[in-house]
Amino acid sequence: MHPESGLIRLGFQRAHEKGPVVPTNKLPPEIGARAAIEDIKAGFDAAGYVCSEAIATAVFLAVRLGKPVLIEGPPGVGKTELARATSTWLEKPLIRLQCYEGLDEAKALYEWKYGKQLLYTQVLKDKLGDLMEGAKGLKESIARLHEFDDTFFNEEFLEPRPLLKALWAKDGAVLLIDEIDKSDQEFEAFLLEMLQDYQISIPELGTISARIPPVCFLTSNNTRELGDALKRRCLHLYIPYPDAALERRIIERRVPELCAELNRELVAFVQGLRAIDLKKVPAISETIDWARALVLLHANTLDVELVRTTLNVLLKFQDDIENVDGELYALTSAARKAR
């Protein structure tokens, strides 16, 4: 693939260029926003991700405007899967940075290969006599040593981490900064340059700009409030729990072995379960797991005993399982009416 092909396909410019965004061949402006959004939905469906109108619109705007997308919502609703689907659709590598408390630039951006530097230092020590041969005075000797100092701090001695890998990706990449709310505020501030201009600053090397700006997604489970500066640099997308129609489409796409009648029952049951006050309501990922479990058990319809023995696939707390037990007959009866 030609190095510029990913740039054209996404409609991005290099980070150091100015002016309007370059039109993309995949979503040419002449087809209009409506047709472009439909194209995104079809492309994601082919990649195995059933997206809503809001999600497709956010991806369209992110591609056209060249801005990161901050995706918020409860766990398990498809935030991370959206980045994976975009990677599959665009045929670009997914580079993932998992955030956690204490994450710093050494783990997120780059690290110096200290072992290699020490090895070269030993080589320099052995050759020190040859290096200083012919030097006139202390000043010239120091100047020669400084030349080797610079040699030790170049890209050859640099170990790239996810952020730098995304900037250096030859044909572009999809960058996922997962669970940004778990990182510290200091790391959030560190990301601002990256999110604003798709570039980072390394003290020993200067500013490094993206070869092709990555398609960037940040996810958050809302465990803490994110700063206004980060939010200003991103498009915002909230992914809630899906409605029944969308969830049936997702199950149909992800678990095609499940019969349509049981699909309707299963989704109706989960939708009813989400209306109960629980520590953790089942998300799409749990619904998919439950559907796969029912296929393995050769189930054709829901009954109270089947639900009771597999409820641990949907609910992750024993207190929730015990609280729901008294409601199983009503929930199962209501779900079977959806058949």
Describe, in plain words, how this protein is organized in 3D.
With 339 residues, this protein is an alpha/beta fold. The protein folds into three domains: 5-103 and 165-238, Rossmann fold; 110-158, no CATH class; 244-337. Helix content is 52%, strand content 11%. The chain has a five-stranded parallel beta sheet with strand order 2-5-8-1-9, sandwiched between helices. The protein is elongated, with a radius of gyration of 26 Å.
What are the SSEs and their pairings?
Blueprint: H1 5-10, H2 32-46, H3 53-65, E1 69-72, H4 79-90, E2 94-98, H5 105-108, E3 110-112, H6 114-126, H7 128-132, H8 137-152, E4 158-160, H9 162-168, E5 174-178, H10 185-190, H11 192-197, E6 199-202, E7 206-209, E8 215-220, H12 228-232, E9 235-238, H13 244-254, H14 260-274, H15 284-296, H16 304-314, H17 318-325, H18 328-337
Parallel strand pairs: 1-8, 1-9, 2-5, 5-8
Antiparallel strand pairs: 3-4, 6-7
The CATH topology of the largest domain corresponds to Rossmann fold
Total of helices: 18
- State the share of residues found in helices, binned by percent: 40-55%
| CATH class placement of the largest domain | Alpha Beta
Succession of helices and strands: HHHEHEHEHHHEHEHHEEEHEHHHHHH
Largest sheet, spatial ordering of strands: 2-5-8-1-9
Structural class: alpha/beta
Could you tell me the strand content as a percent range? 5-15%
Distance between the termini: 49 Å
Q: Indicate the radius of gyration in whole angstroms.
A: 26 Å
Arithmetic mean pLDDT: 83
User: Major sheet, described briefly?
Assistant: 5 strands, parallel
Low-confidence stretches: 1-25
Proper CATH architecture of the largest domain:
3-Layer(aba) Sandwich
Number of domains as seen in the coordinates: 3
Number of strands: 9
Q: Which homologous superfamily in CATH is the superfamily of the largest domain?
A: P-loop containing nucleotide triphosphate hydrolases
| Shape field | elongated
